[in-house]
Amino acid sequence: MTTSRPGTSGGADEAEILAELTAMIRQVLEGYEVEEGEVTMRTRFGADLELESIDLVTLAGLLEERYGGAVNFAEFVADLDLEEIIELDVGRLVGHIRRCLKASDGVGTR
Predict the structure, then answer these.
(1) Considering its fold, how many domains does the chain have in total?
(2) Quick one: CA torsion of 86, 61, 65, 98, rounded to 10 degrees?
(3) How far apart are alpha carbons 32 and 106 in whole angstroms?
(4) Is 59 domain-assigned?
(5) At what angle do helices 14-28 and 53-67 cross, to 10 degrees?
(6) Whole-prediction pTM value?
(7) Which ranges carry the Carrier domain (predicted)?
(8) CA atoms of 13 and 29, how far apart (whole Å)
(9) Of 27, 52, 74, 100, whose CB count within 10 A is highest?
(10) Which residues lie closer than 8 Å to 55 by C-beta, 6 or more apart?
(11) What is the spatial distance between Cα 6 and Cα 3, in angstroms, rounded to a whole number?
């Protein structure tokens, strides 16, 4: 499977990752209205978007589909305690994705 990563050799910027993550969230919440601008870096997955665990599993699949093995959502969540998972916001996931993409930049084939 070939995955494309955003940006150039320097990796993606936060705005680009946020836009891609917002599209994934909209896909997960298909059938629910997610208004333009509703998803920000401070948007919480649970309290604001009301994502359930099955929704997070779906999001994890979309992240893997988009970024391949470079971004492992399950591994990221495994390092969080329960309170951090409950309060997880989009910005923290964007930061994780960005770090993963920078770490994997130049690894493997393009």
Answers:
(1) 1
(2) 10
(3) 38
(4) yes
(5) 130
(6) 0.82
(7) 22-87
(8) 24
(9) 100
(10) 28, 29
(11) 10
